Amino acid sequence: xxxxxxxxxxxxxxxxxxxxxxxxxxxxxxxxxxxxxxxxxxxxxxxxxxxxxxxxxxxxxxxxxxxxxxxxxxxxxxxxxxxxxxxxxxxxxxxxxxxxxxxxxxxxxxxxxxxxxxxxxxxxxxxxxxxxxxxxxxxxxxxxxxxxxxxxxxxxxxxxxxxxxxxxxxxxxxxxxxxxxxxxxxxxxxxxxxxxxxxxxxxxxxxxxxxxxxxxxxxxxxxxxxxxxxxxxxxxxxxxxxxxxxxxxxxxxxxxxxxxxxxxxxxxxxxxxxxxxxxxxxxxxxxxxxxxxxxxxxxxxxxxxxxxxxxxxxxxxxxxxxxxxxxxxxxxxxxxxxxxxxxxxxxxxxxxxxxxxxxxxxxxxxxxxxxxxxxxxxxxxxxxxxxxxxxxxxxxxxxxxxxxxxxxxxxxxxxxxxxxxxxxxxxxxxxxxxxxxxxxxxxx
Length: 444
Ligand code: ADP
What we know:
This protein is of the alpha+beta class. It has helices at residues 2-40, 45-58, 79-83, 131-179, 197-246, 251-283, 295-309, 332-348, 380-383, 395-401, 407-417, and strands at 64-68, 74-77, 97-103, 106-117, 120-129, 291-294, 316-320, 327-330, 355-363, 366-373, 421-427, 431-439. The model has no long low-confidence stretch (mean pLDDT 87).
């Protein structure tokens, strides 16, 4: 299509250029005759006619002319003009005009002008044959017709080769992307050297693969840890039951075995509950029921629960809330869970005789909750990991406290969902402070 357009434009340009050339040629001839008249018009008519004839014989390229005096009598006419007399437009002023006509079957472009010489007026008709130019145009069109199919063929071959060459990197990306699966998630696409869109595409896909791999590793880790943590209590329950049933036992022995199974099953169902919460959170299936909540009353309720939890341990749990309510938009059940996780940990990791304080205050547009304890504290190297799932700072020590390392992961998830931030400061041996800040309700 573009070749046809190209040839059409070339043809048009060529025709225009021929027209201009022909007009220029006839005008130049006319100018030569005008100069001859200016020089020789004073002589007698016989001499003038002879000079005009001589000039006519000099022109070998088929150019013709005729000159008439002011009465319309011909002073000189090239023979072909006398063979046929085409209708000539009337020349009114001294400007040059052009027209095209046939003289004895040959086409000519004729320039006309009235000129003044030796106080007389002459009319000059200078004709140039258009045939050589038409032949050139025909020749050009013939070349066009022959070249077009060849050029189309060449362009198709070149286009095919070029598209194959330019799509080769895309093909490589597709092949590599197709070969990446769960087994080789660490494989990456080759990044092409030129700084173009393909390079960006490969880098973006590699970054995406990186994120997928990280998530995949986390899921695998989570599943592994979860099954490990579930296997232990199930094994405990099974072994306890098997041993109890091996022979006949006293009522007290059965009671001991059953209460061990009961407490382990309670731990297991807590663990399952937490796992379920996190799995639903990951799937985005846990809808929160958000409405304005007065944090003060929730903090006080949490302190009462913590006081009950710490009753056996002799840990003092105190609360400090502002006199006016602190409103946040939140899910009350989730907020209770968050507070309980922090207080449960504070009590769990604080030895007998220690203290726990929960405080609430409002600063600027943030509600700040702090849970401070005088417990065992957290080593600096563990602080960055304690919000990760299944992370427990000291496995041997923590085993005694019975947690699975999911509490703080859930606490962080709840805080995130409420647009808040959770942070911790701790000194090993001296205690820890967990701080949660939540945005207060706009029209509180
Ligand atoms: P866990 O069920 O083990 O308590 P968490 O996710 O609640 O799981 O806590 C993760 C780890 O962070 C705990 O195992 C413990 O090592 C550490 N930790 C959490 N809270 C405290 C605290 N108040 N004092 C000391 N260590 C804590």
